[in-house]
What does this fold into?
Amino acid sequence: MRRGSRFPNDQAEIVFSDVIIEQLEALGENERIEVLAEVVRLCENPSGKHPLRAPLAGWNTLDVLGTESRVVYKATVEHGVGLLEALCMGPRSDSEVYDMAIGISATGLLNEDEVTQLWEALGLLDVVTEDVGLEGWDYRPEPAPDGMRRAAVSSGLLDRETADLLAKDELEAAMTSGWGPDGVDPERALIAALERARGSADFSVRQILEVRRVDRCSVLMVRAKSPCARRAGHPGPHRSA
It folds into this structure.
């Protein structure tokens, strides 16, 4: 993308090559978070600072880790949807990162369907979504099996509307922890489910449920080949369920 260009609605699908995932795994925790946060911020300014020339025409670079290293990436818009592909990272000196990028891109690695989505990468790298400027719960997951939902409702743990908004692991948490000294405890069940959704106790139950009730983004992502499950109008990276 040319300087000054933007993604539609400042949103993009972000994918990583296996190479950069391995490179991120080798970093310390704080460095890993710093690099990922910078990549996420490219959704707001994808044109970068240093467009590359042939044989890497179309690729760009992002300075990271105090400008000591660079991430080589490509920002495009396909079928009206932003796509950001992170290829590799390496030292700025001696053109090492560019030699690496040329070798990787020549294999057609990022032309394959098997690339790592941002959200999957965060899990692989054990990084909390909030650490890189994202909300980890503002999407609607695939609902739990109908039988599980019916069981939770019939037991009195949850109402049907709420049960329909929960993923399988969240509903399992509700059914496991939703019991008090006097039996069924709907409040405890809901908190257990949403602790699973949020990943910590620092959250608003009402906010999570309200966000899941609103319309979905539903943009069809190029690589994931699935609609975005985040809330309509979300900032930054798209996400599949």
Remarks:
- The chain is about 35% helix and 15% strand.
